[in-house]
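User: Hey, my collaborator sent me this sequence without any context and asked if I could get a structure. I don't really work with proteins. Can you help?
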Amino acid sequence: MTCWPEPMTDPTPQAPHLVLVDGSGFIFRAFHALPPMTNPDGVPVNAVYGFATMLARLLREHAGTHLAVLFDASRLTFRSELYPQYKAHRPEPPEDLRPQFSLIREATQAFGVPGIELPGWEADDLIASYATAIRAAGGTCTIVSSDKDLMQLVGPGVCMLDPIRQTPIGPAEVEVKFGVPPEKVVDVQALMGDPTDNVPGVPGIGPKTASALVNEFGTLEAVLDAAPDMKKSKRRDMLVEHAQAARLSLQLVTLARDVPLPVPLEELVTRDPDLTILAEWLSRMGFRSLLSRMGMTPQPASVHAHRSARATAHASANGLPTPTAQDTATSAPAQAISSAPYDKYETVRTAHDLQKWITAAQEAGLCAVDTETDGLDPLNARLVGFSIATAPGQACYVPLRHAGTLEAHTGEQLEPDTALNLLRPLLEDDTTLKVFHNAKFDLLVLDHAGLAMDHTRAVDDTMLISYSQSAGLHGQGMDELSALHLGHDPISYDSVTGTGRARIPFAQVPVEKATTYAAEDADVTLRLWHVLHPTLRTNQALALYEQIERPLVAVLADMEKAGIAVDRAELARLSADFEARMKDMEAGIFSAAGREFNIASPKQLGEILFDEMALKGGKRGKAGAWSTDSAVLQELADQGHDLPARVLEWRQLSKLKSTYTDALSRQASSAGRVHTSFQMAITTTGRLSSTDPNLQNIPVRTEEGTRIRQAFIAPEGRRLISADYSQIELRLLADVANIPTLREAFHMGQDIHARTASEVFGIPIEDMDPLTRRRAKAINFGIIYGISAFGLGRQLGIPAGEARSYIDTYFARYPGIRDYMERKKEEAQTYGYVLTPFGRRCYVPGIAEKSAARRQYAERQAINAPLQGGAADIIKQAMVRLPRALHEAGLHSARLLLQVHDELLLEADAHEAEAVARTAKNVMEAAATLSIPLVVETGIGQNWAQAH
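Assistant: No problem. I've predicted the 3D structure and written it out in structure-token form, which is a compact way to encode the shape of the chain:
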């Protein structure tokens, strides 16, 4: 059986071919793919336009004898009864989409196509049941959708058709995506879960592990049965503990195939639409170009539909017709994105051919560039090849270091230096915009290959373009953005290199296969730029991207190259000391437990705490094991129990030893410097994070944290300079919440915690005792994070009732803060996101949770995100300005090394250290203008602890 639109022949007229359209899935894709449009009545209709276009194409080109569109009737289905959290976290549809649901149902009527829905069942279940029924009747079925949840239906007589790419999805395509044949898809889905639909799955089990397990054992149940006998590992523990969650997940992802059919099969026979009715409806919607394409004339009542100035790239990038001037009162110029296929790419093997591509890129003034390497560390990885895209569908791959394999010869390759010398003028050409996805990585790779990073002015980054307007809404990886905005699932790295032990280095991938993969990455990046860049302005994120995120790429790349020196001898001493202390702790732990056990084993610890010692408050996981995470142990410790307090202390020291004192020596380069990697698009708030190693989680106010910082040093003749914002989030709170008393305190340079204690507890500042100040400090910082009375009470060691009275008194004295908190919660509930004072959107997906605990957590996020995000915006702005300020001040020995939340760490020659500290302080304090002053505290030292 063949999927439409490929030619089909029906050898027997009695064999029906049923085409089922996933209407609900297509609605959302069309809405996000097309620019905003309104009909003559001012009602949004962009999704309606996309849907109508799709139906028109189906009727013109499909080979089915029967046709129906399936819709979701409501959110509540039998799955909601099985698992109330199923899809419960999904936000309400966007305001502009809601009125379009009824119009889309009108569209099915106007086109004469049955639109089917059934309360209590999802559209997917109806599709499964109709597909089953048509097969039982001896017919075949094509499902018009790319939804992964429907891929379990693919098999003999049933295939899918991606409505955007117009490509069939059969068993082979399903196996590429899931790693298993269609009949085992549900087993894989049940293991890995689905955060989009809130299907729990087994924590820590991703797609690759899930498919490997199913391939090895056959079914989900077989995997779970085998789990207890597997080799001891975190994976085994998770499978045992979450077995029931996996079984529940299997029920949630398995489609029902026996739903009573609301409309009999025989009533789904494809019919030509009534052209009079259809023309009247299209005219009423203002879809003049669609009328023209269908050979009809507008009815007299027709008026042009209007669209906003958003670029039409959204539509063409998703394979949807872009609304033309016929459909719009004003037509904003935009570079259309070709609907060209994703697989017509060229392998460039000669200097002559590469020069042709570079010339084409310069003539276009725009290209996308992507690199392929033999490793993930851009400071050490070798360049294996690079790709260039000059227009959608027009891309090439330049192999440089592919090695021959038994399966395929590499053929001719350019000598790396020759290729890079040809590429250099393109990278240095300020008149040609180079688009990357995660530009920092590629620029560091090219820098390591010999192309210095002094060409970053004409660079865009699609990852950061997306992140600047959608932090927290979804991931920012290229594959995820491609699926979301282009309706295209790029070739996976695993499908090219293999997985597990069978994985080969990219340099050993045959060049032809590497070309298809690598050139597609550049092609997708360029198409994403066309789609996403115009939305920066409409989403009011252009200044944030252009002034902060984009220029920060080069700053962070330089910081990563610089690294920071560590004292290996001091780290070794610390490791030995921590190990000795842990041994001493273990003796105390065994004494408190009454016997020896594996302290690192949650299972053994749980048995001692809750079975043998019979402590109250234990909770078992779904697999029956006791939970012993830090929250559980902290609660027991707060109740005065000795053993959990000792274990918490042991765990903290163990983590510091493994993460820092042991690891840093291994991670240091031959020059004795550690090079962290700054992640620019991970957090919801805009904060940077650091990995390999993570230098942002070193404890600040503990003896151990101080000793670890002492191991970060300045080389001989140089100094470390720390510049740290003082109480920046409290200052932002006083500013945005407009609290006169706090503003006055900051202007006067008063101790803000003593001032708060004085205001709340009625004690003169000069008579303030340390305990009262500490309580005021806990409230000040706790309010930023939406602290509860229980949380504050536990922090201060007082009853929750007493803590509640402190919080109530605080809000009575500062009602503006409570008003601010309520405003932010309402903002998140209304829009799905909150804004920082500088316009950054911080999405809060959990704000619509039905679970009170999860919703309250999201509300605390909504309160804190503008403050934490605002602080991130300020320090990023300072980082962008600081290198130039240091250069203009003649401080050429200075360089930025680290950013840790509100602190910047620099290194400079000893004789320039004081001047560097002054310059850093001036730049950071001037990075934003608030109603109260920003204050930066600086320090200079031979090591980080001294400077901090």
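In plain terms: The longest strand covers residues 383-391. You can pass these tokens on to your collaborator as they are.
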